[in-house]
Amino acid sequence: MLIVGELINSSRKAIKEAIDAEDAEAIKKIARDQAECGADYIDVNAGTYVGKEDQYMKWLVSTVQSAVEIPCCIDSPDPKVVEAAMELHKGTPMLNSISLEKERWDALLPVVAGSDIKVIALCMSDSGMPESKDDRLSIASDLINSLVKNNVPVENIYVDPLVQPISTNDSYGMEFMNAVGAIMTEFPGVHTICGLSNISYGLPERKLLNQAFMVMAICKGLDSAIINPLDKRMMANVYAAETLAGRDEFCGNYLTAYREEKLVL
Asked: What range(s) does the Pterin-binding domain occupy (predicted)?
């Protein structure tokens, strides 16, 4: 399971305060904490700084990379911000995200075409948000085929089938799950990813729903997620679900997590 740590986002109060104060040590600590808890990428988002997003994005990327060796996930729909971040990023980053929305696609395709960048391909189009498994699969098919035609290696594509709140439609959970299963079956080599906390929006005890949803999604084939790696119970559920899904040879990762006291009950 590839984990993208979600915590360095300017929409979070603590992060905005750190950015405003240019408190590099606070940002570095959050980056280190996420890496130590199992993150493979650190998501960086400065989207609340309209007109200055590129400036703060560059500062965040430089600050994070001075603290950890793992790469960043550049989280912005603005191609100028993405390009500015990519220019100074050391190593191969991830882009969060491209979609079939024409304006976004046209702006970001030149950034990723023919590159080694890992690309999150969000199942959104100008027709709106997908409702069903078939809607998601159709958009995913167009995204994957178009990216591959533009020299993006299939193994660098991370399809996000789009999680929507179960509180607004009781079919959204299983439609997402079934889309993950269909995408992983029909497109060998492609990955699936999501920001799964949307599933519990508007409901109490959100962590419980998020953890259960993660386990179900892993069993459908989900192999990447944008989450808070400091949530020890969530991470314990990831280790357990991957083992039970047959994706942990000889239970090696599970046993390592046990020895490192990461299996919080």
From this structure: 1-246
User: Which residues have CB under 8 Å from 196's CB, separation 6+?
Assistant: 163, 210, 213, 214, 217, 225, 226, 227
Task: Examine the fold and report which residue of 84, 119, 147 is the final residue of a domain before the chain moves on.
Answer: 84
pTM of the predicted protein model: 0.96
**Tokens in use for 207?**
């962590």
CA 255 – CA 120 distance, rounded (Å): 30
Give me the numbers of helices (H) and strands (E) for the chain, helices first please.
10, 8
Q: Tell me: do 226 and 249 sit in the same domain.
A: no
Q: What are the pLDDT digits (tens) for 195-239?
A: 999 999 999 999 999 999 999 999 999 999 999 999 999 999 999
Question: Do 103 and 216 lie in a common domain?
Answer: yes
Domains in the chain: how many in total?
3
Do residues 53 and 77 make contact, with C-beta atoms less than 8 angstroms apart?
no
Q: Which residues contact 182 (CB under 8 A, 6 or more apart)?
A: 133, 136, 137
180-192, pLDDT tens digit by residue? 999 999 999 999 9
